[in-house]
Amino acid sequence: MSESAQPTTDSARRDRGNAIRSRTKYVNRACRECRRRRAKCDGQKPCCSRCLDRRLACVFSTEADNRGSAPKSHIQLLQNRVNLLEQTLQALGISIDGSPTSQGLQARIEASVTTPPVLRTVSAGSGCIPGQDTSRGDQPGFFGSTSGRLELQSRLAASTLPHESLGVGSCDAIPQDPVRRDFVTSGSSPSTQDVPELPTHLVDHLIEVYFEWEQPWFQVVDKKLFLESRRDGGRYFSRLLLYSMLAIASRYTSLEEVRTDTQDVNTAGLGFLQQAEALLQVDLKWPSITTIQSLTIMAIMYVAIGSDASGWLHHGMAIRLVLDMGLNLDASSAPGSSSLTAEDIQLRHQIYWSLYCSDKLWATYTGRVCTMLDYQGSVPLPSTVLPVAGSPLSILRELSTHCVILEKILTTLYAPNKTALDAEKYSFFDLCLMTLRGWFHSLPDHVGLNTSAQPKPQTSPHVHILHMVYHTSIILLSKPFITNKRFGESDSAPELHSAAASDVRRRASALCRDAAKEICLITERYRETFGSFRQSPLTATHCTLMAILVTLHGEESHAETSQGARKGLKTAMKTLEELSDSWTPPRRYWHTMTQALRIGSPSIENQDETPDWQESRASDAAASQNEQSGNQQEVHLRLGGEGTWVSPELQLASDHGAQHLTYFNIDELELTAFDQLPSDYLTLESLGFDFSFSI
């Protein structure tokens, strides 16, 4: 019975195998038996047809088979795709090395390596935070794992040398230079140099002015620590820092005592700056925290008097010292930070983020590259324990988070070696615009500002500047996508080959116009609340200039748009005029813009009417001008019905000599396109704009 059934079973198996082979294609990955026999395999699982027919064990190998590799063209396409994706991730600020797989592999590698005891605390990116009690004889400095000094310090600590010889919390393992020690102890340090004594009431007044107007925007000095150190002789006070603060505070006051020439407002603070510069030469030999603070303030002061190059140099020295002292690291968790108090750590974080923000504002003001990048630091954002309306720390925190976004705009769209390809810029535009708007809508109520609502009486003036910076960033993001050459399209602007690209260009133009209008509205709100921009930070200058350039660019020419553009232009020019009382750059921009508008108008009528509120100022300025430069032509420039604008005392210190008063009526100007501009302080190429415009 069984013998008769066997043939039937074999026949059924063969029939099934033939049926499977008839409907199954052969595969590239054959089983081991088929590969050994060099036979074709249909790849059926769990047993191929050939092995099934022969009652053989069918096993498929999991080893890689390098036969029949992919074509080179296919590999090249995949590599190009990977490179494009990596560049996109980098353009968006996403690390391509931060995947969980790579991190887990790195952790396993580190766990499998035995680290010598001396090097156990020295890892990549680690270092030693310098001690604070340097007594001006032990130069503080941060040294990382590649320097070799940490190993040297560890060996010295393990030797028979007394622990005190290393210095508490200091990374300097080299004994102090006796010449340096003798110089410091002999009384030649900057804090004890013989400098003129100043009236106490004047110093106290200027210190209060500094902390009221300058400190909330550039928070490199902590008021509590400074005043305590001034009273007790602590490490957060020095003559250099004091004179730097007095110099910049002098720009916010109209007191004649702070001027070297009582008739020249541009000399306010120059005497203090000269004293600070003399003290700086000694202080730079053994810098400290106060050196960084002083350099940052002096940089702003040099820009205030029109010396941009000196300001850039001092700002760069401050950044170098930040890296030298390890302020770009989180002092709360770094080795060697045990001697730092909570106030010390807070001040270090505050200085770092203030300089980081200042660096981004410098980059936009000068059109240069950023020198402090986000990935170079590991400092947590400033914390606000009590979110008081417009409190300095709350403003610094929001400005810091905004400048992180601004850095991406500058490095992606404006850097010489841009991080995004042309095809990627459109996606970057949408993503960055969404990020900027997310930042704006997530602002806490105490730093919010709504130009369409009633003003809040408790709003800080620096909150207005923060919002002006935001709208300026919108302009900077949109500008490269506008193809109008008169608005300064760069050579690297992306080509418009698609409907999507045209849509980006249209939205970018609208965003620029809306941002310029918002800046003008904010300046009007600022003027309503605080009177004028006489005591506004210097940052408002660049924001106002960008609004003017966008307003002059205006693409539409119908009457309503033209009228709105003229109104915005009046507001912005008035802001530059008010800023000119304290700062030199807006005075030069004001002069350049008035010259540009005069060139754009073939007919300018002299106006003899002057409102009462401007009459005395105009006559005083004209009299002073006549005394210094004799009879000069006066071209009157009237602002249609809203009062006559008199340029600030343009005969003050300028790299281009005396400048005469000019007046004209913007409402009567024929604003036509022109390409010729007077030679002046404004470098048009660096800003990416020219002044060919039509409204």
Helical content stands at: 40-55%
Beta strand %: under 5%
Rg, nearest Å: 34 Å
Strand segment count? 2
N-to-C series of helices and strands: HHHHHEEHHHHHHHHHHHHHHHHHH
**Bulk shape:** elongated
The separation of the N and C termini measures 107 Å
Question: Within the largest sheet, what's the order of strands?
Answer: 1-2
Average pLDDT taken over every residue? 71
Helical stretch count? 23
Low-pLDDT sequence parts: 1-7, 98-106, 108-125, 132-139, 159-194, 485-493, 556-560, 600-664, 668-695
SS content category: mainly alpha
Question: Sheet with the most strands?
Answer: 2 strands, antiparallel
Explain this structure:
The protein is an all-alpha fold and 695 residues long. Among the domains are: 2-53, no CATH class; 128-188, no CATH class; 196-325, no CATH class. Helix content is 52%, strand content 1%. The protein contains 23 helices and 2 strands. A two-stranded antiparallel ribbon has the order 1-2. Helix 20 packs antiparallel against helix 21. The longest helix has 32 residues, at 499-530. The protein starts with a helix and ends in an 8-residue tail after the last helix. Residues 622-634 have a biased composition (Polar residues). This is Zn(2)-C6 fungal-type domain-containing protein. GO terms for molecular function: DNA binding; DNA-binding transcription factor activity, RNA polymerase II-specific; zinc ion binding. Residues 30-60 form the Zn(2)-C6 fungal-type domain. Keywords: DNA-binding, Metal-binding, Nucleus, Transcription, Transcription regulation, Zinc.
